[in-house]
Amino acid sequence: MKTRIGILTSGGDCPGLNAVLRGVVLAGEKLGWEVIGFRDGFEGLLPPGDYVVLDRKSTEGIMALGGTIIGTTNRGHFIAKVGAGDRAVVASEVIARARKVLDELHAKALVIVGGDGSMTTAMQMQEAGINCIGVPKTIDNDIEATAMTFGFDSAVAEVMDALDRLHTTATSHKRVMVVEVMGRHAGWIALHGGIAGGADIILIPEIPFDYDKIAQAIKRRESAGRLGSLVVVAEGARAKDGQQIKRDIEGGEFRLGGIGDVVAREIAERTGKETRACVLGHLQRGGPPTTLDRILGTRFGVKAVQLANEGHFGSMVSYQNYQVRHVPIADAVNRLRLVPPHGEMVQTARDVDISFGD
User: Fold this and answer.
1) Which label site among 115, 232, 241, 262 has the fewest CB atoms less than 10 Å from its CB?
2) Are the beta carbons of 230 and 163 closer than 8 angstroms?
3) Model confidence at 254: pLDDT above 70
């Protein structure tokens, strides 16, 4: 019987997931392995198992597609709950049911493609005796144990494109355009996208801002004859002595969002300038991956198969110093990589006259 490994994609989708799937399938095929993809994240592991056999034919042409051909979810039975010691845990009986399905399918290992929450679940599954390999995925680029994750470059490209388009309308109408982008705890998307798109003000979670300072920056631009301004704000950004802006959704669950409207309103009140807000939202998650994300996703998928072949279970693929390596999954859990407020990227932005509202 052929050696068999499983793979699933969990959490929010992003460009590059299909490149990972293709990389795993083709690298596994060279070893004579069979790859099965579990549908809709961890939920596909529940009895009787919801999966599809992935092969060269089923993965042909998918690298150019956004999203994931096997589906994903950030809901369901595997959502980690905070338990004793403040460690997020999945119910042990749920893990046991998943292990039973994997045993029945004779899966040697399970490749888990996901973010911080998914890696937490992967670590718990590894401790329960399931051979797991982690592949980091987050467009926020905020996992400490890897210098870059696929999907980030594509999200930044979307922000850059939006700013390119909004620049002309801001200039034509002499308006301030506020663009809200993703970034719950880390401002990497706002920072990179803002620099690439020629933003005038960038607001990120790591640098609390002052509305009066933002207004002063816009007034300085206006006095210099620059009558249109672009402001990029990460969804998790907050004013000094303020809180992150949350919005209520169905079921009483709170999510971040709405800071763009608040910033636009405050700017209009303080400057008297016509101000508009634009929320990019899930546009940053969709669409075809960039060249970088296709390559990085492929490299991550191939490395995951190598780690499984070498028996490095409990490891996560990691990109460091332009090389794809691996680290213990535990190194990636609950450790966020944030923008250094005094780092080189922020200083570069300041040196080209970008304000952070501080």
Assistant:
1) 241
2) yes
3) no
pLDDT in tens, 82-138: 444 455 688 889 999 999 999 999 999 999 999 888 999 999 999 999 999 999 999
pTM over 0.70: yes
**CA distance linking residue 339 with residue 192, whole number of Å:** 11
Kindly list the structural domains of the chain, giving each domain's residue range(s) and its CATH number in brackets, ordered by start: 4-150+289-332 (3.40.50.450), 153-285 (3.40.50.460)
The answer to whether 197 and 162 are in contact (CB under 8 A) is yes
Which structure tokens are listed for 218? Answer: 């816009």
State which amino acid sits at residue 195: I
Read off the tokens for 124.
Answer: 């718990």
